[in-house]
Structure formats: structure tokens, C-alpha cells
Design brief:
- The chain contains one helix and 20 strands.
- The protein has one helix at residues 149-167; strands at residues 4-6, 14-15, 20-21, 26-33, 38-39, 44-54, 59-60, 65-67, 75-77, 82-83, 88-90, 93-94, 99-100, 105-106, 111-112, 117-118, 123-124, 129-130, 134-137, 142-146.
Length: 170
């Protein structure tokens, strides 16, 4: 089975040779995927009206959707980020070593800073900023508490685990 990697208006996705893209993932247009990153089964990354950039050692888990808008920036995801299953990221910015929980939604212009965590099912509304070291939860998402030392350590462990797991698929 081959990947669904498509150009859009003659712009072809750029995918690191060390990245894993599952055969059923759709990668379209102006999308860049960094070293040792992984995009798992059933994901859609559609860089049609703006760009999507994913840093190194980041994992985009099964069923997630990443899209953009022509009215703002693209969608930018840093290094060592974990994006949980079925998450939706739209025209937002996710900092390094951040965590986006399963089925979370991060909307246009929102920023999840380095080392921040968005809980499963949370809705980060347009232009909100989730600061470093904080956990946000709810619909709409709001500050819950500061992350524990164990949770901060987990952010790196999660990235390491997905790099290791993805190597078995290459």
C-alpha cells in the first residue's frame, strides 16, 4: 500500500527520509515533516491554502486532522510534540515538547507554548494562548493547574516512545 501524498498547485509535500508516514495518511500540498517524526494511520494534513510545518521527533497520532486557513498563518508544530488520536489542529501554533490530548481541538490563531499540555477533548478557542508548563482542559479550554515534574518529564518520554515505535515501521 502506498502513501497518499499529493501536490497542490505544484507544491509537493517535503517529508524527511527518517520520518514515518502511515500508508493511509493523506499529506497534501505545502506540508513539511521533520526528521524522525511520525504521521499515523488515517491522518489528513492538508496544506492547500497555507503551509503546515512539523518539526523533528513529533508524532501525529491516528485519525488526526491538520489544516490551515488563508486568512492567518499556517499551522506550525514544533519539535518533540505529541498530538493524540483524532485531534484537530487548525491554523494554530504548537510549541516544542507540547502535548495535545486525544480528540482535542486547537483553533485559528491559538498558541500552545513550549511544554504546555492540552487535555483530551479540550477545545482551545481562537487566539487563546496556553502558557508553558500549564494544563488546560474543558470546552472551551481554560487553565486547570500547573504541570507536575512527572508530567513535564513525560513530554519527552512520549516523543521518545513514538520515535522508537515508528522505526519499526520504516
Amino acid at each position: 500500500m502506498s502513501n497518499f501524498i499529493y501536490p497542490y498547485k505544484n507544491i509537493v509535500p517535503t517529508i524527511s527520509k527518517s520520518a514515518f508516514v502511515a500508508p493511509s495518511a493523506s499529506i497534501i500540498g505545502d506540508v513539511e515533516i521533520g526528521d524522525e517524526s511520525s504521521v499515523w494511520y488515517g491522518c489528513t494534513l492538508r496544506g492547500d491554502v497555507n503551509d503546515i510545518k512539523i518539526g523533528a521527533r513529533t508524532n501525529i497520532q491516528d485519525g488526526s486532522v491538520i489544516h490551515v486557513t488563508r486568512n492567518l498563518q499556517g499551522t506550525y508544530i514544533g519539535d518533540e510534540v505529541t498530538v493524540g488520536h483524532l485531534a484537530l489542529l487548525h491554523a494554530c501554533r504548537i510549541g516544542n515538547r507540547a502535548f495535545i490530548g486525544m480528540q482535542a481541538c486547537v483553533m485559528d490563531g491559538a498558541v500552545v507554548e513550549d511544554g504546555a499540555m492540552v487535555a483530551a477533548g479540550a477545545l482551545v478557542t481562537p487566539n487563546k494562548v496556553v502558557p508553558t508548563g500549564q494544563l488546560w482542559s474543558g470546552r472551551p479550554a481554560k487553565y486547570m493547574r500547573d504541570l507536575t515534574e512527572e508530567e513535564i518529564a513525560f513530554l519527552k518520554i512520549s516523543a521518545d516512545n513514538y520515535v522508537r515505535d515508528s522505526r519499526e515501521y520504516l
